[in-house]
Specification:
The chain has helices at residues 18-21, 47-66, 74-83, 86-101, 105-126, 129-140, 149-164, 171-201, 217-229, 241-250, 254-265, 277-293, 299-304, 312-346, 361-373, 377-380, 386-401, 462-466, 494-511, 531-538, 544-550, 562-571, 576-594, 605-615, 632-635, 646-664, 670-681, 689-697, 704-709; strands spanning 2-3, 204-206, 235-237, 404-407, 419-424, 430-439, 449-454, 477-484. 49% of the residues are buried. A hairpin with a 5-residue loop joins strand 5 (419-424) and strand 6. It contains 29 helices and eight strands. It is mostly helical. It is globular and about 85 Å long. Helix content is 54%, strand content 6%. The strands form two sheets. A six-stranded mixed beta sheet has the order 1-7-8-6-5-4, with helices on both faces. Strands 2-3 form a two-stranded antiparallel sheet. Helix 2 (47-66) runs antiparallel to helix 4, helix 2 crosses helix 6 and helix 14 packs across helix 15. The protein has a domain at 2-196: Neurolysin, domain 3, CATH 1.10.1370.40. Bound molecules: zinc ion (ZN). The site of zinc ion has 6 residues, from helix 19 and helix 20.
Length: 718
């Protein structure tokens, strides 16, 4: 559920040298509708020369800004900087999209080769002394430049980008900082590729009926399809979350559940060329050095400067508010699970004996859900056909924000699974393109995420600006990726449907962006604010009137029965202790490991995370959630390092914010929707996030709605 970090976004032109461009579709004008990439013509070998050329063009653009003879002003320096690098942005964004969603050995090889040069380019941009001197001079007298609020915000943002990238370091320190950033880029790339290797190479074969015992048809279908996609007979479980989680939930074969669980939590932890254990230590060592060069005692201190939370103490205060309450809830849940398990053991049910293990939790939780709350995922899923859930998301976006999504099956996309839409606003104006890629594939990263091929912006280079109304240059192209197991038809769990709404919320944050400068556009906000637009959108999927309209049985077309909706609502808080403990546990280990001040990380990080969570009271059967060796949020890039807490931080905002609709009388209240649109979804990073929230809500957020939503308030039963 993450946002793809991309290079700094900007618009602008820049001539390419004809030799390099001659046979390379990436360097020729992109003539597809709306300026989409020429996907059909792109080959992996086009990227290295195109990216090298795009970096050269960007350097030339920046040299022109840095050595401009006129004295620095906002237009010739800051706005020009914001426009620069358009060619690099679009080639790098295309490269990122293909590597995440349709990768290959050849693309991964290019990624390994170019990780360090791309990081070096970023260093060269932000350590350019002449360029920084102009930005720094303007920043020093920013109060007297007569800038409007957004221009001032851009100047402050750009200045901070320079400072945090080492622009103020001198001599050897700056050289070392650059080297550290390049090494980090190479190591995080290898980390991600190792996880993908482990995920795509493992299968658990289910050769016969004995091996598939307990699996409902939708899991069995998905397992057969996964086997067929890999040219294997029968059915297999892969480490795709959309397969392994249902398997752990339904399989009555405790021995196979244990095998699948061990493979899942063991990703990245094994000797050989795909071992992530030493890689994680190397990354931590370099981050600690990066922080030290910036004058911070730990990486967390450095990372948190540029966040809403602002400090480790503020993050710890939130985690400590939630953790003990979640422990109480998970212990209550474990008692329920144990009761049901012991009753089954008394009847001699195989697999019910012995103590509760991590690979048992989901299985017995499902039994409790069925027996105590009369809710069974297999009963719920027929009402959540993928196409209907997509239609529900579009319908909510129309009712809230006036958007219309029109399929454009003729547009060029990178894989047949991808669906393309033109998005128009209530007045009929085109506001962007939306590409949705919903299915798991062996060539695709796990998880769900939003990314962008182009950000919304109005600060365009001369020719494009002159015809801004008739060009695609400032038009956002936004992508959503999910990893659903394909079925006939594809049926989602309620959790899957919520994930789709979550990513769609990020998508709306990109599509509804309405700012002048590319650097301030869309989801490029402070990272503990970025999950607010996504998480608040999740609320609508469980609104009764949305369910009534869109949650229809895939065979009969009947809406989901009101009684089932009511049972779902009652069951909602069950297992929230488990989910909260696992999530918060990951946030705690993230903060702990990135708060270390010693130059040398612990020798055994697997033991470090385990001992930390045991000391904090994690029940054995809950199991560790994301272990460092495959924790992509922390180590596949630096985007969420010392930042896994951001989901909880934003949940304080989304739980409190969604209450505004209830207070106003309904989930589609027009006035609240308009404020949400204007202050949260459209403003990007053009205003301070705290101020944006207050403009929407009329006050600061309270933590109580979050605790209530998760059933963690002491006076309310689960
Ligand atoms: Zn997210």
């Amino acid at each position: 559920m993450k946002i793809d970090p991309t290079l700094p976004a900007a618009a602008g032109g820049g001539a390419t040298s004809s030799a390099a461009a001659a046979a390379n579709p990436l360097l020729q004008p992109w003539t597809a509708p709306h300026g989409l990439p020429p996907f059909a013509a792109i080959r992996p070998e086009h990227f290295e020369p195109a990216l090298l050329e795009a970096m050269r063009v960007h350097r030339a653009e920046l040299a022109a800004i840095a050595h401009e003879s006129a004295p620095a002003d906002f237009g010739n320096t800051v706005a020009a900087f914001d426009r620069s690098g358009a060619l690099l942005d679009r080639v790098a964004a295309t490269f990122g999209v293909l590597n995440a969603s349709a990768t290959s050995e050849a693309l991964q090889a290019v990624q390994r080769v170019l990780a360090a040069p791309l990081a070096a380019h970023r260093n060269a941009v932000y350590m350019d002394a002449a360029l920084f001197a102009r930005v720094d001079a303007l920043h020093g007298r920013r109060g007297s430049l007569g800038l409007d609020a957004q221009a001032l915000r851009l100047l402050e943002r750009v200045h901070l980008d320079f400072v945090r990238s080492g622009a103020q370091l001198q001599g050897a320190q700056q050289h070392r900082y650059a080297a550290v950033m390049e090494e980090l880029a190479a190591l995080t790339t290898r980390f991600a590729q190792n996880v993908l290797h482990d995920e795509s190479s493992y299968v658990l074969p289910l050769p016969d009926a004995a091996a598939t015992a307990g699996l409902p048809p939708f899991v069995l279908d998905a397992a057969r399809r996964a086997a067929a996609e890999r040219g294997l007979p029968g059915a297999v479980i892969t480490l795709s979350r959309s397969l392994v989680v249902p398997f752990l939930t339904y399989s009555t074969r405790r021995d196979l559940r244990e095998q699948a669980w061990r493979a899942w939590v063991g990703r990245g932890e094994h000797a050989g060329e795909h071992d992530n254990r030493e890689l994680v230590r190397a990354i931590l060592r370099l981050r600690r050095e990066q922080a030290a060069l910036m004058g911070c005692a730990s990486y967390a201190d450095h990372a948190l400067v540029d966040t809403m939370a602002g400090s480790r103490a503020a993050v710890a205060a939130l985690l400590d508010e939630v953790w003990p309450r979640a422990l109480v809830a998970v212990q209550r849940e474990e008692a329920l699970l144990e009761e049901v398990r012991r009753a089954a053991a008394a009847t001699g049910e195989p697999g019910a004996e012995g103590r509760l293990e991590p690979w048992d939790w989901r299985f017995w939780a499902e039994r409790v859900r069925r027996e105590r709350f009369a809710v069974d995922d297999a009963e719920v899923k027929p009402y959540f056909q993928l196409d209907n859930v997509v239609a529900a998301a579009f319908d909510c976006a129309q009712r809230l924000f006036g958007l219309r999504f029109t399929p454009r099956d003729d547009l060029p996309v990178y894989h047949p699974d991808v669906k393309a839409y033109e998005v128009h606003d209530g007045a009929g104006a085109l506001v962007g393109l939306f590409l949705q890629d919903n299915f798991a594939r062996a060539t695709k990263r796990s998880g769900a995420w939003m990314s962008s091929l182009r950000w919304q912006r109005r600060n365009l280079a001369g020719a494009a600006a002159a015809v801004a109304g008739a060009t695609h240059e400032g038009l956002p192209i936004i992508l959503n990726n999910n990893n659903f197991a394909r079925g006939e038809p594809t049926l989602l769990s309620l959790d899957d449907a919520r994930t789709l709404f979550h990513e769609f919320g990020h998508g709306l944050h990109g599509l509804l962006s309405n700012v002048t400068y590319g650097r301030l556009s869309g989801t490029q906000v402070l990272r503990d604010f970025v999950e607010l637009p996504s998480q608040i959108f999740e609320h609508w999927i469980t609104e009764p009137e949305v369910l009534q309209r869109h949650a229809r049985h895939h065979r009969t077309g009947e809406p989901i029965p009101a009684a089932l909706v009511e049972r779902l609502a009652r069951a909602r808080r069950f297992n929230q202790g488990y989910e909260t403990v696992r999530y918060t546990g990951s946030a705690i280990t993230d903060m702990a490991v990135h708060s270390l001040t010693e130059a040398e990380p612990p020798a055994d990080l697997c033991a470090f995370e385990h001992e930390l969570l045991v000391a904090r009271g994690l029940p054995h059967a809950a199991g560790v959630n994301h272990r460092f060796v495959h924790f992509q949020h922390l180590f596949a890039s630096s985007g969420y390092a010392a930042g896994y807490y951001v989901y909880l931080w934003a949940e304080v905002l989304d739980a409190d914010g969604y209450d505004a609709f209830a207070e106003a009388g309904g989930p589609f209240d027009g006035a609240v929707a308009r404020r949400l649109h204007q202050h949260i979804y459209s403003s990007g990073n053009s205003v301070d996030p705290g101020a944006a929230y207050r403009a929407f809500r009329g006050r600061d957020a309270s933590v109580t709605p979050l605790l209530r939503k998760r059933g963690l308030l002491a006076d309310e039963p689960a």
